[in-house]
Specification:
The protein is mainly beta. The chain has 3 helices and 15 strands.
Length: about 250
């Protein structure tokens, strides 16, 4: 499926246009945790659902290239309610490829409450790239704000951090390297058609070595109310592309 892409500067997003209706927002880490709780055998549990049983716009899986429309979803057998023996750290894991979260409200296993951790495989693996996919439920303008924090500060051979990407319907929109201990932030707005999918992809960095590549990822996706988005697109007509990337030191 193709889509028309319009990127809008943050100046227009803060231009004083008043939304006439509340925005709809998806937050990757909180939506992930919502799917993990309650645990089985509670009959309300959806923890084995992929796509996400509570927030079905999200799917979790992997593939062998960065930019593609393909996605292999995690299997039910990949789910683990105590990764590394920690019952707070729950989610999907196939070998070292991991998409999981601290599901508790306290710091646990070195993760802050509700941190979403992603980990890729090495280039030599048949499924190198970790992929979190979000599918647009309706046509409109969506504001997307994402961050990746390479948690390990170790450096040396093969310890060069990770590569992160935003891919829309198989076409890469954003590509960056995240050095050990650093954070990369990207934000922008995009016009999507219902069914378009945005993939947040993580790889093992230029070295192709996935050792110590645990990464804290999050993204917030907000549907801009229709009246506001129409005005924003018209105002942004001369500016057809905008993305900003910020690289910072790890949070204190």
């Amino acid at each position: 499926m193709t889509s028309s892409k319009v990127f809008i500067t943050s100046a227009f997003l803060a231009s004083g246009v008043t939304p006439l209706q509340a925005a709809t927002t998806w937050i990757a880490n909180l939506d992930f945790v919502a799917n993990e709780k309650p645990d089985l055998p509670n009959p309300l549990s959806t923890e084995l659902s992929d796509p996400n049983g509570k927030v079905p716009e999200w799917s979790y899986g992997y593939r062998d290239v960065i930019a593609s429309t393909t996605l292999t979803l995690f299997a039910t057998s990949d789910h683990n309610n105590a990764i590394g023996g920690n019952p707070d750290f729950q989610g999907w894991q196939n070998s070292f490829l991991t998409t999981a979260a601290n599901t508790s409200g306290i710091v646990s296993g070195g993760l802050n409450p509700y941190d979403l951790l992603v980990h890729p495989m090495a280039d030599s693996s048949s499924f190198t790239y970790n992929v979190i996919r979000w599918t647009a439920p309706s046509t409109g303008v969506y504001d997307i704000s994402s961050s990746w924090y390479a948690a390990s500060t170790l450096t040396g051979p093969g310890l060069d951090g990770v590569d992160c990407h935003i891919v829309l319907n198989g076409t890469s929109l954003f590509d960056a390297l995240v050095a050990p201990g650093q954070t990369v932030v990207d934000f922008g707005a995009v016009n999507l058609i219902a069914g378009d999918f945005v993939d947040f992809v993580l790889g093992p960095g230029n070295s192709g070595d996935s050792t110590s590549d645990s990464t804290i990822f999050n993204t917030t996706i907000t549907l801009v109310p229709e009246t506001s988005s129409t005005l924003l697109i018209a105002a942004a007509a001369p500016i057809l592309f905008r993305r900003r990337r910020k690289i910072s030191n790890p949070p204190a």
